[in-house]
Amino acid sequence: MRDLYQRLTLTPDASDHEIKSAVARCPNSALRQDAETVLGAAEHRDAYNKLHKTVSDIGQLRARLGLTHAAHWQGDVANDFSLPPDHAISRHDELIDRVSLAVSLYNRWRRFKGPWLLVALFSIGASIGLAFGLALGLGLSIG
């Protein structure tokens, strides 16, 4: 199926006047005839617009999945609704990446928490003991 809007450099919400002038400027007689038949009558245009929307959505879905036509289809009518592959990361994949990072940081914290907690407690205990020892030593030497 041809994308008549794309081939006539129009948008799907183009006015009747814009369509008629684009069809009149079209150098390809077969395309001009198709456009006059499909876009000229209101009921045909409505049906084409519904189909155009569906096929465009399918093209976007194919691009999102990384599916494109092979090189021998490029420039052909079958390629009108194909889009280049969309390599953007999906929201699901982004969420999975963020959760995985949080879990790895938490696991790292749990792994090192035990030894560091023991070192901290030993250091605090030694400092308190040293402070009492100095206080007692200074108290005995003064008295």
Topology:
Blueprint: H1 4-7, H2 16-25, H3 29-40, H4 42-64, H5 91-142
Helix pairs in contact: 2-3, 3-4
Transmembrane segments: 116-142
Protein name: J domain-containing protein
Keywords: Membrane, Transmembrane, Transmembrane helix
Describe this structure in words.
This protein has 143 residues and is mainly alpha-helical. It has two domains: 4-79, Helix Hairpins, CATH 1.10.287; 89-143. The chain has five helices and no strands. It has helices at 4-7, 16-25, 29-40, 42-64, 91-142. α3 packs across α4. The termini are far apart. The model has no long low-confidence stretch (mean pLDDT 82). This is J domain-containing protein. The chain crosses the membrane at residues 116-142. Keywords: Membrane, Transmembrane, Transmembrane helix.
- CATH names the topology of the largest domain as Helix Hairpins
The first-level CATH class name of the largest domain: Mainly Alpha
How would you classify the helix and strand content by structural class?
mainly alpha
SS element count, helices: 5
Average pLDDT rating: 82
What is the domain tally?
2
Q: Would you identify the CATH architecture of the largest domain?
A: Orthogonal Bundle
Rg from Cα: 36 Å
In short:
The protein has 143 residues and is mainly alpha-helical. Helices cover 71% and strands 0% of the residues. The termini are far apart.
Keywords:
J domain-containing protein, single chain, membrane, transmembrane helix, 143 residues, 5 helices, Helix Hairpins, transmembrane
